[in-house]
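Q: Could you fold this chain for me?
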Amino acid sequence: MPSSKNHSVEQKKKVHKLPFIKPTKNELNNKIWAGVICFIIGLFLVYVIKSLDFIGWILILFGFFQSTNSFWLKYNFSQPFLVPYLFTMIKTKKFIDVIHFIATKFAKILELISLVGSILGFGLVAVDYWFARKLGGVKRIVVLTISAIILGAFFYFSCAILFSVPALAPLFIPCLIGFVFLGFGGMSIVMLLGYGLISLGGLFIEKQMCPALAPVLPGVPIPGFGIAIPLVGWVSLFIILVIHELSHGVLMSYYKTKINSVGLVLAGLLPIGAFVEQEDVTFDKLDDKKALLVLSAGSASNLLLIPISVILLIIFSLVVSPFLSEINESQNLAYSGVMIQGVEDSVSLCGVDFNAPAKGKLFEGDIVKQVNGIDVNSMQSILNGVSKANPDVNFLVSRRNVDNNEYNNISVLITPVFFEDMNIKKIGAAFALIPTGISVPLHIQILAFFISNINMILLLLLIISFAAGSFNYLPSEPFDGGKMAKIMLEPYTNFMKFKSKEESRKFIGRIFVWLVIIAVLLNLIPYLTMLI
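A: Sure. Below is the predicted structure, expressed as structure tokens.
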């Protein structure tokens, strides 16, 4: 998202910002140690006494961010950002020349990508803005009708998988309508409002809903959900951030907008944002169509990463397929099967707790031979068996008899807890591979490590690109779509007789800001009910 730095003399006179006063080294040392202590207390709550997970993870993250960012400030590695001891930013001018060079080679291609992205981002509104409105009359209606059919088909074939989750299924038609008229921006706001209203309805029927909005940090479990994104997700996120901001910067450079700096926003060691800082004086001189293309460029490039990621996944799978048989053979020699590592007392999701179905039926040390009559040769085969339970899953386990120390095969029937809204089934048992004593050769371990992680990076690149690209078209500031909505929707407010375009655009901005605020508040309901 392009950031700005206002150089208006008049505004400088009106706004008196207090500069950030850097603390002394002793004060920063105290903040570092305070962060370390919070981090240790959080670890103790989560991993030692295994309770108060929500508070524990807040302390872990707060402690990590404060201690690390205070360290950066102490040694002038980065600058304060928003909350100085939780977030910092690295600013540099070194990569501006790179942006200018790319702009001379690829700006025209990026313009086309950005134009297509704006249509996906704002649906019929964008089609009308770029093409149909100037045709007028019957031609305008024909273009919009054909475009509506194409957009609807695109949504059906590319986004329908989102609504396979039962909790989102009721929103399919409203989101389809939102997408056709206002693209991914419309879909996003309809989804947020719709799920928020569903959550509100859950209060009256005393049904606990899972939050639709959740803080997602790769490698950090969300309390009540488990691990959401593996740690390697930071690699995918970093690529997405860089491409997003680079795309903004390339078109800004092409349109002669002065770029002051580029940089990253850090939470501790982790990049959580990137920016291209432009000068408002030159950016404000752009006509509306050029400004739209600049604003759309980042999200459009993220959406383009989706098919690129699919192609890379296919190519990667073809390249590594000759090595997979050797890896599987080595792992089969190293592990003889799967055993029960432990059984939980309860299973939970989003604050809803149930007695663990495996409790009293499976026991630590049981060796799993079959699931639903299929021989078990991996952890995945067990997960597949549980997910396909209808309604029961049949385990054949080999259990040691404490009297004669012999192993007997026992059939165990378990009915998993089915969390219908999220289409998740749990039995409350943990599994582990049984080592044979034969070690996997080092080169096979390294090969398997790189294959699994590169595959995960590409998969997350696909998933996060969709999330970043679609939600950045949300027609509300501070998202890129907020500024785009003001420009494209402004002609539809002519009947309201605003004194100027600026007043009209402010009105549009206020409408969507309030819609997003309402949507966010509604989506906080599941968190409140989880705490209560």
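A (continued): The CA atoms of residues 317 and 455 lie 8 Å apart.
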